[in-house]
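Design request, tokens follow.
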């Protein structure tokens, strides 16, 4: 809804009208019943809310023009119970939000909010920054789009490279939230994962020769292939080490591997291709004990060299430890303790390294910290199980 409406009125007004439509539904549907086509009802309500706002502000020429387009669209749509599908509306919105006139952090934060539907706490978790910082970035980005008159469209071919990195980051972070939900009763958000994969596929159609776009899609498919085995019948978390790999999605694994091979043939390695290669090494192993951890450690070393970050170093520390170099793994982990002090996976990894070293007390303390940071119920239950097992 937001993406379709933003095409006519811009991101900020579209967000306001969309919120108004849902507020209208919350009042009308309990009273009148759910309409036959809820999506069409909401789209119509949002469009008419936007028309009302524009009529109040019709003195400005640009808003008068937008009002005329919306009123014409409303007349065409009247009496129908469906809305015409515009398959790349969300992709247009992504490119609008990722305009180079916006600061990189603001681009990604705004797009995660507007396109991914992520809440401010979820975006703050992705950036490892306080929630008020994220909120300020989003407000400033919306204001900049309105003031600069940034157009709502997929840019021309020669403009795509300037925005590609931010677009890839957005899709990656949306998928991360889908794979490990920040909060709630479910470990994952499959609908969000499917949308991230769909948009990545659209991007690969738009830019078929871009190896990092192919690498990102490969990474998503290789990780998403494990989804059927990540929880048991009761919805409890199942670690990678304990998953029944026969339940992995073979078609997604094959598609992801093929895309990775296609990307690597370009001989332009990038962060997403390397992460996809790491996921491919996991997928090739018959079981957890058969995983080629030395190869994974080497790949994380390459990733750290071209895209250094504390999170990459954390994952590298785990891989190095599992490859048999426990002292080196501990040294890498300690190097990122300060920047990742409020990052749950750091404390879970810290606990695992302490457990492997035989220090149950330190492992329990690290798990206590991870439990305190968790707001996802299956994840929290698994952390509590691990802590109690140490007793």
């Amino acid at each position: 809804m937001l993406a379709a409406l933003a095409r006519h009125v811009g991101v900020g007004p579209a967000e306001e009208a969309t919120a108004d439509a849902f507020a209208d539904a919350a009042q009308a549907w309990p009273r009148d019943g759910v309409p036959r086509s809820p999506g069409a009802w909401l789209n119509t309500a949002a469009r008419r809310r936007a028309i009302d706002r524009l009529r109040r502000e019709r003195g400005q020429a640009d808003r008068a023009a937008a009002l005329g387009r919306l009123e014409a669209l409303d007349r065409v749509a009247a009496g129908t119970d469906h809305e015409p599908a515009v398959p790349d509306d969300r992709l247009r919105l992504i490119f609008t939000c990722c305009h180079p006139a916006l600061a990189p952090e603001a681009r990604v934060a705004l797009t995660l909010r507007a396109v991914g539907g992520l809440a401010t706490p979820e975006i703050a978790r992705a950036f490892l920054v306080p929630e008020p910082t994220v909120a300020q970035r989003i407000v400033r980005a919306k204001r900049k789009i309105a003031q600069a008159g940034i157009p709502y469209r997929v840019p021309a071919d020669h403009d795509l490279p300037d925005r590609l990195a931010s677009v890839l980051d957005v899709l990656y972070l949306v998928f991360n939230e889908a794979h490990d939900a920040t909060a709630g009763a479910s470990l994952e958000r499959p609908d969000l994962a499917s949308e991230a994969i769909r948009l990545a596929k659209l991007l690969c159609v738009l830019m078929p020769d871009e190896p990092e776009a192919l690498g990102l899609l490969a990474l998503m498919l290789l990780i998403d292939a494990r989804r059927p085995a990540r929880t048991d019948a009761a919805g409890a978390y199942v670690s990678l080490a304990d998953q029944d790999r026969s339940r992995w999605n073979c078609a997604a694994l094959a598609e992801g591997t093929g895309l990775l091979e296609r990307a690597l043939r370009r001989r332009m390695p990038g962060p997403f291709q390397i992460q996809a290669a790491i996921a491919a090494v996991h997928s090739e192993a018959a079981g957890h004990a058969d995983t080629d951890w030395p190869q994974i450690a080497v790949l994380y070393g390459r990733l750290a060299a071209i895209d250094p970050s504390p999170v990459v170093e954390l994952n590298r520390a785990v891989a190095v430890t599992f490859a048999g170099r426990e002292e080196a793994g501990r040294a890498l982990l300690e190097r990122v303790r300060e920047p990742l002090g409020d990052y749950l996976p750091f404390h879970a990894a810290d606990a695992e390294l302490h457990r492997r070293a035989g220090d149950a007390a330190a492992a329990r303390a690290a798990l206590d910290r991870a439990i305190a940071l968790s707001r996802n119920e299956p994840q929290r239950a698994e952390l509590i199980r691990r802590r109690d097992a140490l007793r």
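Comment from the thread starter after seeing the answer: thanks! Residues 81-87 have pLDDT under 50 and may be disordered.
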